[in-house]
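INTERNAL AUDIT FORM
Audit reference: QA-55
Scope: verify that the stored structure record matches its stored sequence.
Auditor: D.O.
Record contents follow.
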Amino acid sequence: MKRDSRPYGRMRLFLAEWREYRALTQDQLSETTGIAKSTISRLENREMPVNERHIYKFADALRCEPIDLLTWNPLSDRPLLNLFQSIPDTKRREARRILQILAEPDQTPYEIEPAADTAAIEQDERHG
């Protein structure tokens, strides 16, 4: 039987991209995670399969969600990612749901209420 010559895993891992986005070297990521630099290199080059333990350690060190390592290239999505990461943790679930609704192609469009007059709000805060 012929051996499959494709790189390990059909799953894409954006490890190198996240590491570059956070301005870390392989040595620094290795030191932070306790995962050998050679393993990091092999994972980035798809020469070995990634496991759940690796994903959680990398996500913690790279300050992202584990699923982000599998689905998001932060270098190509930088403006959106920066905006999303600026949202406080307490509001991220709501922001994700809004984005999911907007991404669903068969949803009926709905109107978003206009933002309140910020000048009036600021005046109320000064006199309140």
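Auditor finding: record pair retrieved intact. The two ends are 78 Å apart (CA to CA).
Action required: none
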